[in-house]
Amino acid sequence: MADDSDILPPLALLGTEEMRRADRLTIEGGRPGAELMEAAGRHVAAALERGPKKGRLTVLCGPGNNGGDGFVAARLARKAGWEVRVGLLGDPRKISGDAAVMERAWDGEIENASRHPHFSTAPTS
Questions:
Q1: Could you tell me the CA-to-CA distances from 52 to 42, 55, 58 in Å, in that order?
Q2: Contact call for residues 73 and 108 (beta carbons, < 8 A)
Q3: Residue 85: which of 56, 112, 107 has the closest Cα?
Q4: CB of 85 within 8 A of CB of 110?
Q5: What's the pLDDT tens digit per position in 26-69?
Q6: For residue 116, what pLDDT is reported?
Q7: Domains within the chain, CATH numbers bracketed
């Protein structure tokens, strides 16, 4: 019996710049960025369904596109029955474009996670 390596190509992990390029090329090819965010969030929510029983979940989002993915994941997890908290790391005024669309689609509270001592980049004394 053949193993999966005979069928599936090796998994490629992309670095930050490679992923930005892949996203840019996909969007330039006609797939909207919001659609990419929905797909990413949907995959995270699906992975949660394969994990532990539903309970509490905290999603930390930044102001960029990955944060947009997080807002989608949070929305879909809540819809699936998770108790979801969303924390924003960064300046909410910097959320723009598709990430802002996904932030507005989230119907729950958004906590300022930047003020939490565990996530703050400010020096502690």
A1: 17, 8, 14
A2: no
A3: 56
A4: no
A5: 999 999 999 999 999 999 999 998 887 889 999 999 999 989 99
A6: 75
A7: 34-125 (3.40.50.10260)
Amino acid at 30: G
DSSP state of 14: P
Phi/psi-derived region of residue 17, left when phi > 0, alpha when psi is between -120 and 50, beta in every other case: alpha
Question: 69 near 97, Cβ under 8 Å?
Answer: no
Alpha carbons 59 and 63: distance in angstroms, whole number: 13
**Which residue type sits at 61?**
C
Q: Are 71 and 61 in contact (CB under 8 A)?
A: yes
Please report the pLDDT score of residue 83 as a whole number: 95
